[in-house]
Structure of Metabotropic glutamate receptor 3:
Amino acid sequence: MATRRKLIIFITEFLKHPNVRGVILFCTDTDARRLLKGAQRKKAVGRFIWVASDYWGTRTKPIEGLEKYAEGAITVSLTEANFSEFKAYFTSLKPENRSR
């Protein structure tokens, strides 16, 4: 978990670069909320497009009271699947048998 101060620094750094629009979040709902609060402190309404994991997307608590800073966010839910053939292939890869 990142500290509140570090997350404010991230937001401040992002704001220094006008071309930075998308912020990808794979973090806890607590850290997501801290980032949104950082955006609020910096008055960054609509500045970022948040792309977040289902950890945020399936819960309302992280954005409670911060909805206008989270508006337009895209959340993704990852699914897990077991592909035994791919696992066998992937675990058989070695630097010495790499061909490109």
In short: The longest strand covers residues 49-53. The mean pLDDT is 87. The CA atoms of residues 11 and 17 lie 10 Å apart. The radius of gyration is 18 Å.
